[in-house]
Write a structure and sequence with these properties.
mainly alpha; 3-stranded antiparallel β-sheet
């Protein structure tokens, strides 16, 4: 280990000069010479050299760092931490601890883009994490506290009054869950990337979004949806789209399940209107970044063939469509058709509800859930069945109508009991009486068949007791035969003995 000031040649003046900073030179266990720029103060540079040598010795002998050395590392400048980490003397999380949260979030944003996420998704995720950490006052990763995060989300869910006295609703539970999900994803990345040793929000979980569902989508029945198509077809131009074009958009969305961004990206060349008509969504435009070819109905293909006859293959089919005017045009067309945008239960029918209607119609038609999932292009069947599949009005009534008619069954039981002489009894009493009568008649029949028989031999075959000898054969119940084996058979299994249950039937009850 040595401390020195190196010299260099000034290219302009051709003079030899000495650096302002001291440099330290150490050797690692492999005898490599490592140099590190220190400070302008010689004493501080000497302290740095000694601590670096001690750190190298602890690393070579796999010893724990002393408390004083750990505190010294925490106060090192970032450029020295970077060099020590590159040398392998410090772990990556030690260097990460000196970076601000904003720097880590910026790196995470770049990783999201590199993974193939859309810029919109990456921006939204990073902004949510930054908003939450700034509101909680976190500057470094070590400042993140699960309790503070939970309290901040609870505050954001509270309704408040603005300066004008108007009520401003807080975040819904689902929106709060989105913020928490983004923060947990960021912390997991910090852990997996080696920038942290723990996830401070790992144990936090989202709340039940169904308790505060504010925008639940609903379905339209067939007649109402036809009204919407007629209103759009006969309506005026809206946001640069004719009535025929809007009706075509609605019908294409409800028969393919395409999202508004996917519809807006379609070109004329994306449609194949041959024997098996289909439409192809490019991976760049699809939400899951996977290209997909979806089948088209034959009647839909005929309408599209007429509409696309004058368009070039590279031309966008619905050039004026975007997520902003799509929300507006469907509201106007619903109003023209006399269909409320929001029903009395607070359920809405917006443009994305067309995708819900597509998947729900598949379920109502009896399509297998796995097929519906494939058409919906969902990675999880739960999303298809729980979120997007709705029950049409009247389907529940049809299902209940398939249940047995218990009133008719009760009437039949009452009539049957009356024939057995148990009128004016409750259903439970009638059933009990019926069982008693049936058991009594069965017992008397067995006793009467055995009356007058003194000794008989019997054999048991295939679970049925058959009498042999005098009189006619009398099959017995298997369970009764086994219950009475001790009374009916002797040890040698051949001769029946006298039993009071058969010789005196009145003692049977």
């Amino acid at each position: 280990m040595r401390i020195y000031k190196p010299t260099y040649l000034n290219r302009k003046t051709r003079e030899t000069r000495t650096t302002a900073k001291f440099y330290i030179e150490v050797r690692d266990p492999n005898r490599r010479i490592l140099r590190l720029p220190a400070f302008t103060d010689k004493r501080a540079s000497e302290t740095l050299a000694r601590n670096v040598q001690q750190l190298m010795d602890c690393k070579a002998s796999s010893q724990h760092l002393p408390v004083e050395l750990t505190r010294w590392i925490e106060n090192l400048p970032p450029h020295i931490l970077t060099v020590l980490t590159r040398w392998g003397l410090l772990e990556a999380y030690t260097l990460a601890a000196s970076k601000s949260l904003d720097e880590h979030i910026t790196d995470w944003h770049a990783v999201l883009l590199a993974r193939g996420n859309t810029e919109k998704h990456a921006d939204l995720s990073a902004n949510r994490v930054k908003s939450l950490t700034e509101a909680c006052g976190f500057k470094f990763y070590g400042d993140i506290s699960a309790a503070k995060v939970q309290q901040e989300l609870a505050n954001r869910r509270q309704d408040k009054l603005d300066d004008a006295g108007h009520l401003v609703r807080g975040l819904s539970i689902q929106s709060a869950n989105f913020y928490l999900s983004c923060l947990k994803s960021f912390c997991r990345w910090m852990l997996f990337d080696g920038r942290a040793t723990m996830n401070p929000v790992a144990y936090l979980g989202g709340q039940n979004a169904e308790m505060d569902r504010r925008h639940t989508r609903r379905m339209l029945n067939s007649s109402d949806f036809v009204k919407l198509l007629i209103a759009a077809e006969s309506g005026p131009n809206r946001y640069g789209m004719s009535g025929h074009e809007r009706a075509l958009i609605y019908e294409l969305a409800v028969t393919t399940g395409l999202r508004v961004s996917e519809l807006a990206s379609l070109t004329a060349g994306a449609f194949s209107l041959g024997e098996l008509p289909s439409v192809t969504v490019s991976a760049k435009s699809a939400k899951n970044r996977k290209s997909a070819t979806l089948p088209l109905r034959v009647d839909m293909a005929m309408k599209l063939a007429t509409y696309l006859a004058t368009k070039l293959p590279t031309a966008r089919v619905f050039a004026r469509l975007n997520k902003f005017n799509a929300a507006r045009i469907i509201r106007l067309d619903l109003k023209a058709a006399g269909i409320p945008y929001m029903d009395v239960n607070g359920n809405v029918f917006d443009f994305h509800a067309l995708r819900h209607q597509f998947i729900s119609s598949l379920a109502a038609a009896g399509v297998h859930p796995r097929t519906a999932q494939e058409l919906a292009r969902h990675s999880d069947i739960k999303l298809t069945m729980n979120r997007y599949t709705h029950v049409f009005r009247g389907e529940l009534n049809k299902a209940v109508a398939l249940l047995p008619n218990y009133t008719a069954e009760q009437a039949w039981q009452t009539t049957s009991t009356a024939k057995n002489g148990t009128d004016n009894l409750t259903p439970i009493e009638s059933e009990t009486a019926h069982n008693v009568i049936h058991k009594s008649e069965s017992c008397w029949a067995r006793c009467w068949a055995r009356e007058g028989a003194e000794t008989r031999s019997c054999t048991e075959s295939d679970g049925v007791m058959v009498q042999q000898g005098q009189g006619e054969a009398n099959p017995l119940n298997t369970r009764e035969s086994r219950d009475n084996q001790g009374d009916l058979l002797q040890a040698d299994g051949g001769t029946r003995t006298c039993n009071l249950r058969f010789t005196k039937p009145l003692l049977c009850h």
